[in-house]
Write a structure and sequence with these properties.
The complex is a heterodimer of chains A (563) and B (118). By secondary structure, chain A is an alpha+beta fold. Chain A is elongated, with a radius of gyration of 28 Å. In chain A, 48% of the residues lie in helices and 17% in strands. With 118 residues, chain B is of the alpha+beta class. Classes of the chains: A alpha+beta (563), B alpha+beta (118). At the A-B interface, helix 6 and helix 7 of A face strand 3 and helix 2 of B.
Amino acid sequence: MSIQVPMSSEAKPLDQVVAEEARCTQVDSVNLLAALRAACDWFELHRDAVNALNVFPVPDGDTGTNMLLTMRAAVAEVNGEAPPTVAEVMRLTSQGALMGARGNSGVILSQILRGLARGAEGKAVWTAQDLAHAFHEAAVTAYKGVMRPVEGTILTVIREAAEAAERANAQDATIVELLQQIHAEARSSLARTPELLPVLKTAGVVDAGGQGLVFLIEGTLKYARGERMQMEHRQSIVEHANAELLDSDYNYDTQFIVQGTDLDVETIRERIATMGDSVLVVGNPETVKVHVHCDHPGEALEYGISLGRVTSVIIENMRAQYEEFVASHQAPAAFAAAAAPDEQASSISIVAVAPGDGLKRVFESLGASYVVPGGQTMNPSTQDLLSAIERVPRDQVILLPNNKNIILAAQQAKAYSTKRVEVVGTRSVPQGIAALMALNYQSGLEENSAAMAEHCTDVQTIEITRAVRTVQVNGLSVQEGQFIGLLNGDLVAADDSSQAVITSILERIGIENIEILTLYYGEDVTRAEAEALAKVLSEAYPTLSIEIIPGGQPHYHYIISAE
Amino acid sequence: MTPERGLGKIEVSPRAIASLASEAVLRCYGVVGMAPSTVRDGIAEVLQVENCHRGVQVRAENSQVLIDLYVVIEYGVRISEVAQNVMDSVKFAVERALGMPVAEVNVHVQGVHISAES
């Protein structure tokens, strides 16, 4: 079904092209390339939102980064001016995506682009009909890459979007109308992903890859409508920042461009690879872009200088960057914006109070935007809580005090804040964690705080610490230095070993009432000690499922959640 | 394989683990089939779906599981990324079902499948 359309005579000024686009029925190569770049830029603005959605198969939070790097590699394959035909633009971008594919979502995206490229073969320009056909090819190609397609993923979104394209095409749509239909269907398809994939529903999110695809389509649509992006397209195809740096052993992110003659990309790449990791060397014989994570940026630069003229040097300390990134990490808010189809309903940030690095990480991984350090022996002030509330990105905030002595300060912070704040009166860390589990980003503030308040009492809290003085309490005689156990805040057991205290409390609760025991061990306990304890307990109570997590809290040897 | 759980012994045969692993592999994007693990001379026949466990070798060492996978990959995907995803998914699926650590997942790409143009 090849349709012969006259080639566009020459590249027009972009503004003019954009203005014409609204009533346009075909896309030429200049527009296509600009649209792809716009899609990439739009995606970049939402990268963190996509990262925050990652739950499958292992929660690792890098789908957004992977898709962005893949998309950047795709558009970077077209150096400078657009080639004369859409076929050539798509051939190059699909090749770039293939070479630059990162992660599972990146591989699928590269197949989608490959399908679009198939749909472009032999075309100088795309009509609406061609574009609909290309989307069909994209869906078909994407599905060919796997034996058992998992529905409720990016695959479902591209398939349903392609079906919408075909329907719209049957109604003689213009390019913009077609993209609108594709975008609308992609969004509703995305909203349905939790119905198809239980793991998404459990986590209360939509599919990350699918969300990424929606953003790419959205960016394209925005370009086609003539909405100008707020940001310049970055020529740089490499990642400067943050999330991906977690796993790097090296200290410096080093980037530069070498200009020369007869540069051999392969040789340069091999040499750079000896200096560090995350090596990215791309370019042509005249210009080569180098990116490497290394400990001696000087070495890489010296090598660059030996090859030619070095420009655009960027050296950044990743360790420092990463620390900053962690401090300002606002994924849950972005998460909310991305997850809910209705943007109003989802703008909630979580502030939690927790002692210890380990517990801080636990809360952050469950979606807390900010964790105020504090607990039994170090109650944060109202001011501490207030500034935490003010610094999180959303105007609706749920505050989890996680200690009965902090609830009051939390209520005061609520009264002083200009934001809408709900305090869920969690009295312990396990209650706070149980409450967070009940959070649903699709629901509103009141609904969520009610649900969280209800669920936080599902768990029993056991805290183990040492007695600081000899005392008689609740009919117990406690010697200084003995281990004491608190059940939901009440002192109920004392003994010379922590294990005896825990056992006595478990018997008190009734072992038949407990299925899961989570031990957060404190800074005074080594992992080996915690593991030994878990082993003894699991031998004594074979029906229990026991998990140990480093909590890093001071004073309390163990904080235990029993449910 | 014998995960420990108090009262008695639970035995999981390598064959069961192989089925578990192959099921996870087939859901991995980019993998279009599995090849028998015994064919080493380069003639990679693609296994029927119900025989896919034959493309998996399972060994146990020091109560850890080691898995070798023999896969066929779709032409045109970036093999390194697909293989990495296969490793992660299989480790995750087997550990979740078995409750035993998976020490190694080795991916052997036995063939590349070129699907017909539509």
